[in-house]
Design brief:
Layout (H helix, E strand, L loop, with lengths): L7 E10 L7 E8 L4 E5 L6 H8 L2 H4 L3 E9 L2 E2 L5 H7 E4 L12 H11 L4 H14 L15 H13 L5 E5 L7 H16 L3 E5 L12 E6 L2 E7 H5 L3 H6 L25 E9 L5 E10 L4 E5 L6 H8 L7 E6 L2 E2 L9 E4 L12 H6 L8 H11 L15 H14 L4 E5 L7 H16 L3 E5 L3 H7 L2 E6 L2 E7 L3 H12 L4
Parallel strand pairs: 3-8, 3-9, 6-7, 7-8, 13-18, 13-19, 16-17, 17-18
Antiparallel strand pairs: 1-2, 1-4, 4-5, 9-10, 11-12, 11-14, 14-15, 19-20
InterPro entries: AAA+_ATPase, ABC_transporter-like_ATP-bd, ABC_transporter-like_CS, ABC_transpr_CbiO/EcfA_su, ECF_ABC_transporter_ATP-bd, P-loop_NTPase
Organism: Dorea phocaeensis
Family: Belongs to the ABC transporter superfamily.
């Protein structure tokens, strides 16, 4: 019987980015068979993304550094292969879809790769239509990309990757910005791609949707593959064994529920009355939203991508104007343009909220007169696992580190209401837990905290209350009293709000 040649192989591969003081990959040996489904996981900074960049030819062409050993993809060394030709065989889907967009229209973006390789127009039209139909995302056709939510943009990036029908798919944190229902839709597509014989490599923290799909799991640490498990072996690990490896659960039913008690302020602190919003020439996105909130509550806002969660947060923060609505804080009517005086909004895209040239100075910005500021900054850096980066430039941090830094700034804010937009997007278990502790710190200090999230684990650790948003209205308002209410939230998220 003829021995099967692996489609991808790493032979004593090491890589160190230019300007870094240590290697990001260290003597990696790995073979991947054609048609295999491989998941790479581990804590942030373990080398997952660097390994995938070797497979899709971003290393050494676009990320400079010192590469030793050998990486062979489809019979060619990445040191010699042409990135343009590799693009026909390897589709890449990144955590931040904006980094791979070339147009401003969703349909044009899905068609772009085909046009780039000179595929006839009639064939392009067929492939684009097929891509939108495959994920049941025809409502995203011909949309302005700037009006899409981050999750909807991620869906467009995934659709665009399928049009060339490549042999290899490389996905880097593809679930980071997706709601659970959309993730389960993506699972169906990945299952179909696997059944069709494609080779799939997924770098991921959220593992639940990969249960039963992955042939192998690689757990990385400090640039090395420290453990390799088959799909069957991974499925046998208990919840405690997963946590001891600092991994997210493979089964959402194993999530442990923490009962989060509000601090118990009896008087209503925030009132929103009949808030409605619509984009220009678009159907109404939010319709007559009315809620009350007390100090010391952490309120999770959940719903499908594009349902208006981030819009809700931006209106409450005074960043965008709603069509109608009344806002009352501590019993006083507050004009919408003045809401920013009371509400601190932490964006999902952390780059937009970083201003200084060091992590420490970022936290001190605007806070230097606070008594004991240096001690408070030091405590926050430790809580958010950033103490080793205190002198780094914020733009030298990873996406997750930047995200935690902006949350640290919120912790120092004297504003009574905090809105966090997807604060655990792309975070490993360890750092998700650190952010949960930060949110609980804010709640215990008497803040009103809103968390916009798709992360069930994070909800289980932080939310005292959850708002279920569907078709522009709050479908349910739940006090998180234990397993029964958590199951309602989980079912709502998994079924797309049904």
């Amino acid at each position: 019987m003829k021995k099967q040649i692996p489609i991808i192989s790493f032979e004593h591969t090491s890589f160190q980015y230019e300007g870094q003081i240590q290697e990001n990959l260290r003597d990696v040996n790995l073979t991947i068979k054609s048609g295999e489904f491989l998941v790479i996981t581990g804590q942030s900074g373990c080398g997952k993304t660097t390994l995938t960049r070797c497979i899709n030819n971003l290393i050494p062409r676009f990320f400079e550094g010192v590469l030793s050993g050998e990486v062979i993809v489809s019979g060619r060394s990445i040191k010699e292969s042409d990135a343009g030709e590799a693009g026909k065989e390897i589709a890449s889907i990144f955590q931040d879809p904006r980094s791979q967009f070339f147009t401003t229209n969703s349909s044009s973006e899905v068609a772009f790769a085909c046009e780039n390789y000179g595929i006839p127009h009639e064939e392009i039209v067929k492939r684009v239509d097929r891509a939108f139909q495959s994920l049941d995302m025809e409502n995203l056709k011909d949309r302005d990309i700037f009006t899409l939510s981050s999750g909807e943009r991620q869906k467009i990036a995934f659709l665009a990757a399928t049009t060339l029908n490549p042999q290899i798919y490389v996905l880097d944190e593809p679930s980071a910005n997706l709601d659970i229902h959309a993730i389960l839709q993506m699972r169906k597509i990945l299952s179909a791609l696997k059944a069709a014989g494609h080779t799939i490599i997924v770098s991921e923290h959220r593992l639940f949707y990969l249960y039963g799909l992955a042939d192998r799991f690689l757990i990385m640490k400090e640039g090395r593959i420290c453990e390799e498990l088959t799909g069957e072996e991974m499925a046998k690990l208990s919840a405690s064994q997963m946590r001891s490896r600092r991994l997210r659960p493979l089964n959402l039913n194993t999530i442990q529920i923490e009962k989060i008690e509000p601090i118990g302020h009896s008087e209503v602190f925030l009132q929103i009355k009949n808030m409605s919003f619509s984009h220009k020439a678009m159907p109404e996105l939010l319709h007559s939203i009315s809620i009350e909130a007390h100090k010391g509550e952490t309120i999770a806002l959940v719903g499908e991508n594009g349902c208006g969660k981030t819009t809700f947060g931006k209106i409450l923060s005074g960043l965008i104007r709603c069509r109608q609505g009344g806002f009352f804080i501590d019993g006083k009517n507050v004009k919408q343009r003045k809401l920013s005086d009371y509400v601190y909004f932490v964006m999902q895209e952390a780059d937009h909220q970083l201003y200084t040239d060091s992590v420490t100075e970022e936290l001190r910005l605007g806070n230097k007169k606070i008594p004991g500021i240096d001690e408070k900054v030091s405590r926050i850096l430790k809580m958010l696992h950033l103490e080793n980066f205190k002198d780094c430039h914020p733009y030298a941090l990873s996406g997750g580190q930047k995200q935690r830094l902006t949350i640290g700034a919120a912790m120092l804010s004297e504003k009574p209401i905090i809105v966090l937009d997807e604060p655990t997007s792309g975070l490993d278990w360890n750092n998700m837990y650190a952010v949960a502790n930060a949110v609980n710190f804010l709640r215990k200090s008497g803040k009103v905290v809103f968390i916009i999230t798709h992360d069930l684990e994070f909800i289980s650790l932080t939310a005292s209350r959850t708002l279920l948003l569907k078709e522009g209205i709050i479908k349910d308002d739940l006090q998180m009293t234990g397993k029964s209410t958590f199951k309602i939230v989980k079912d709502f998220m998994m079924k797309g709000g049904e």
